[in-house]
Design goal:
Layout: E1 2-6, E2 11-15, H1 17-69, H2 77-123, H3 127-138, E3 140-141, H4 144-151, H5 157-187, H6 193-210
Antiparallel strand pairs: 1-2, 1-3
Helix pairs in contact: 1-2, 1-3, 5-6
């Protein structure tokens, strides 16, 4: 995980590597689209101009053919020869304009496909990725030390004292439970030497426990429990 912190609110945001990869791809797509947009527009303009020239060349042929059809039969020879020659020349222009248009069309189709592919991928990116990019551009990336402190925050002093007091009371209860039967054996004159020695060890342990100052938690040197 990658952690970022908003210094204004101290809010921590965590993003995995896949999310950051999406952010990186988003920026790449924007750069590609920025580069291809003017190329796409230029190719479209060139295609439309080429189409206009192609259509105009065909109209020129049609016009010349109509003139040829309306010629007076009494003036066919030289007139018709000239018109036929001109029509042939115009038809060559049509072929030239047609080839130019088809070339422009093929170029445009390739650019359009590339543009369409990039645009589709860009449009499919979740809105959340845009928010993540905005955050990581504004927020500060946390250091390893800061991350550890965030994931393992120090326990508040009052909580440490409470925990230490609970532990102290639990150990005292355990000592009392151990002392009670040993004291009974002493009171009844039934204690063995081992029991008498054990009683003294437990009583000493209980005294030391009572002297523990839980306000110094977590720096407490707990007394050694008797075996």
């Amino acid at each position: 995980m990658n952690y970022f912190k908003d210094k204004k609110t101290n809010t921590v945001y965590a993003y995995d590597n896949e999310q950051l990869a999406q952010v990186s791809r988003l920026t790449e797509l924007e750069q590609h689209l920025k580069q291809i947009e003017p190329v796409y527009i230029g190719a479209d303009n060139d295609l439309q101009l080429s189409l206009l020239e192609f259509n105009q060349s065909k109209k020129d042929v049609e016009l010349e053919e109509s003139k040829l059809a309306s010629d007076d039969e009494d003036n066919l020879d030289e007139w018709n020869i000239n018109h036929s020659k001109k029509i042939n020349e115009l038809e060559l222009v049509v072929d030239e304009k047609k080839q130019a248009y088809e070339k422009r069309l093929a170029e445009f189709n390739q650019i359009e496909e590339d543009h369409y592919t990039l645009k589709n991928e860009y449009d499919a990116i979740p809105h959340a990725v845009f928010d993540i990019r905005e955050n990581i551009n504004v927020f500060k990336k946390m250091s390893e030390k800061e991350i550890k402190a965030h994931l393992n925050p120090p326990i508040p002093k009052d909580q440490l004292i409470t925990q230490a007091e609970q532990q102290k009371q639990s150990l005292l209860a355990e000592a009392n439970n151990a002392i009670a039967p040993l004291q009974d054996a002493i009171d009844l004159g039934m204690a063995t030497e081992v029991e008498a020695a054990s009683l003294q060890e437990w009583k000493k342990y209980r005294v030391l426990l009572n002297r523990v100052d839980t306000s110094t938690a977590p720096n407490i040197d707990w007394p050694q429990k008797p075996e």
